[in-house]
Structures are given as C-alpha cells and as structure tokens.
Design a protein that fits this description.
The chain is an all-alpha fold. α8 runs parallel beside α10.
C-alpha cells in the first residue's frame, strides 16, 4: 500500500507539470536514439538540427524547434534531475502556458542573439568561417531562463542570494570563456528576469524556511 501510495503521489506530481515531463520523455527517447547512431552519423544528424548560422539562415523554425528536442552530450539523467528541480516547480507555479512562454522566449531569443553575435565575429574575422556550421543543440537556454524566473518565487531576503548565485554562475563563464554559448546562457538569464510580468497574480513568494518546514511536517 505504501508503494502504491508513493507511486500515486509521484504520478500526481508529474501530472501537475505535464509540459515538463512530456518534454523530458521526448528527450529520453531522442537520447536513446542518439546512442544507437554511429559517431559520424550522429554528428551529421545533430548538425542538421542545430541552431547554427547556416541552419538558421535556411530552416529557422525547424531548427529552433528541433534543437530543443535533443541533449548535447547524450546524458539524460542529469537533465531529469534539473527538470524536476527547476522546470516542474516553475510550471506548477506559473501554469503550463506561462512556463512555456518563458522557455520559448529564452530558447529562441538567446539562440538568435548569440548566433547573431557569432555571425558578426565571423564577418569581422574574430571567429573562423567554419563557425557558421557549429553544433548548437540542447535545452540549456530554456533551463537558464526558468532558473532565472524562479527568482520571483522566492521571498526576500532569500531572493537576493539566489539571484546573486544565478548571475555569478552564468556570468563568470561568460567573462572567462567568452563563447557564444556562454553569451546565450547569460542572455537567457536576463530574459528570464525580464519575464516578471508573467509572474504577477501567480501567488505570493515563498520563504525557503517555511517550505522546508512544511516538507518535514
């Protein structure tokens, strides 16, 4: 009975964030598919679904959607944890439609802006021309946007240390590495913070201490 009850609670929780777990299920299937490919075919296959300059110039809608259905690196389990920790709470809080808007805004705008910056770098000779075909897939831009928008779910004064960790966590790699993906991640954070109008009317911010106490009790 306890096992059945636990499974029922897990199922109810998953149903409360349907978009998160449907997306995660798709990522599981595509990750399994990638592991069945030869390395040579995998690279070619994923490059055609990449939001690089070449593909965005020819098939922007297809690659913007398709790139969010694959995981860079082929490791699904870490994303299962990240989706449960960040995406699911955000969807339960905002509702599926608003959560999806945050994801889309972060993924699409960060992809376009970062690739636009890379295009300028190529044109000015800062980056090699081969960069137009670079591999750029994955769900990390949407994740960064959701992590950022969750700032508004946390009550003061806890909100500010969380925000500081997010900004430092994504800002330091940009300052050190200065890659277009680092830029995309930091832009995604700014987009998530700019989604403040979507959080209005979605309930008061939560005190982490009260949340932990409620879970224990």
């Amino acid at each position: 009975m306890r096992i059945d009850g636990g499974l029922h609670r897990v199922w109810r929780y998953m149903c409360s964030a349907p978009g998160t777990y449907v997306w995660l299920g798709i990522l599981f299937v595509t990750t399994v598919a990638v592991h069945q490919m030869s390395p040579e075919f995998e690279e070619q296959f994923l490059r055609q679904r990449s939001t690089n300059i070449h593909e965005l110039s020819n098939n922007p809608v297809r690659v913007l959607i398709g790139s969010a259905m694959w995981i860079d690196g082929g490791r699904w389990a870490p994303y299962a944890v990240l989706y449960a920790v960040f995406h699911a709470p955000a969807e339960r809080w905002l509702g599926t439609a608003r959560w999806l808007l945050v994801c889309l805004a972060a993924h699409v705008l960060a992809s376009l802006i970062s690739e636009g910056a890379l295009l300028l770098a190529v044109r000015h000779g800062v980056a090699p021309h081969s960069a137009v075909n670079t591999l750029d897939i994955g769900v990390s831009y949407a994740l960064a946007g959701v992590i950022a928008v969750l700032t508004y779910r946390i009550a003061s004064p806890w909100r500010y240390p969380y925000l500081a960790v997010v900004l430092v966590g994504y800002g330091v790699p940009l300052a050190i590495g200065r890659t277009f993906t680092d830029l995309g991640h930091f832009i995604s954070v700014l987009i998530g913070l700019a989604c403040y109008p979507l959080v209005r009317g979605r309930g008061k911010a939560r005190n982490p201490k009260e949340t932990v106490a409620a879970l224990r009790g």
